[in-house]
Design goal:
256 residues; alpha/beta; Rossmann fold; seven-stranded mixed β-sheet; two-stranded parallel ribbon; 8 helices; 13 strands; 33% helix
């Protein structure tokens, strides 16, 4: 292993990480979360590749990826390792970008970049559309998740993968202007207060402190309304993370 990689690994291994990275030397990063919670990452990874490998197995070198809310770069790194032409990870927190860049440099991935940016401020015209768009652990931390679903459609050439906590659904109709007029309710959002997490600088929480969590029904409805031709619920492995297995979290694959 080149000396620069050893020095980088030593720097990486001096601290704890949100993800377990197996570094080029075979050494592993120490987790700052419990092993039980870390199962969500391995479950997401398995679910992600259960969709992507059949689609791109023979053409990874032609594929570009946008990973929105890329955190410390765990999923972006795994996609770069598949040999994608370009992977761009975007995250609102500068600390996450710095940490993800360290991991990238340790592996020497030249097809992987990271950029700081709040998902809620991103403009579709600023990025070329990518074959794959990934948005994991994002929607339920946003004040305006609808705008991000719209952004995802604008940036997706083939498939958008969304993993999120979901809220209980309300269906039926609502009076609209008078008792004689009604509108159908395709799904609902639940308001979540994350101000306590923001006040303690919880880097896994909302940036603003107010979040709208979508129901499964409304998320599927939005994806189709914004132009995805097909939306599928990605089945979790039976031994996967409990929230994904129970359906309190879901991963959706939206195809153009």
């Amino acid at each position: 292993m080149p000396k620069v990689y050893s020095e980088l690994e030593d720097r990486i291994l001096k601290r704890k990480w949100f993800y377990e990275f197996v570094l080029p030397s075979g050494r592993k990063t120490e987790l700052c979360i419990s092993a039980a919670l870390a199962e969500i990452h391995t479950t997401r990874l398995a679910m992600m590749f259960s969709v992507l490998d059949p689609m791109f197995r023979n053409r990874w070198a032609d594929v570009s990826v946008l990973d929105i809310a890329s955190h410390e770069g765990f999923f972006a790194c795994h996609l770069a390792a598949r040999g994608c032409r370009r992977v761009l990870g975007i995250d609102a927190r500068a600390e996450h970008i710095q940490n993800a860049s360290l991991i990238r440099d340790a592996f020497g991935y030249r097809n992987l970049e990271f950029s700081e940016g709040d998902a809620q401020s991103l403009v579709a015209d600023a990025f070329p559309p990518a074959e794959i768009v990934v948005m994991f652990g994002l929607l339920y931390h946003l004040e305006n998740p609808i705008a991000i679903v719209r952004l995802g459609r604008a940036l997706t050439k083939e498939v958008c993968l969304i993993e999120t906590q979901i809220a209980p659904n309300l269906s039926g109709t609502i009076e609209w202007g008078s008792c004689h007029s009604h509108k159908e309710i395709p799904g609902t959002f639940s308001v979540i207060d994350e101000m306590a997490e923001v006040s303690t600088d919880n880097k896994e929480a909302s940036v603003t402190g107010i979040s709208l969590v979508p129901s499964q029904a409304v998320l599927i409805w939005l994806l189709k309304r914004f132009g995805f031709n097909r939306v599928e619920i990605v089945p979790p492995p039976s031994d996967g993370y409990e929230q994904l297995v129970s359906g309190n979290r879901i991963m959706l694959a939206a195809f153009t």
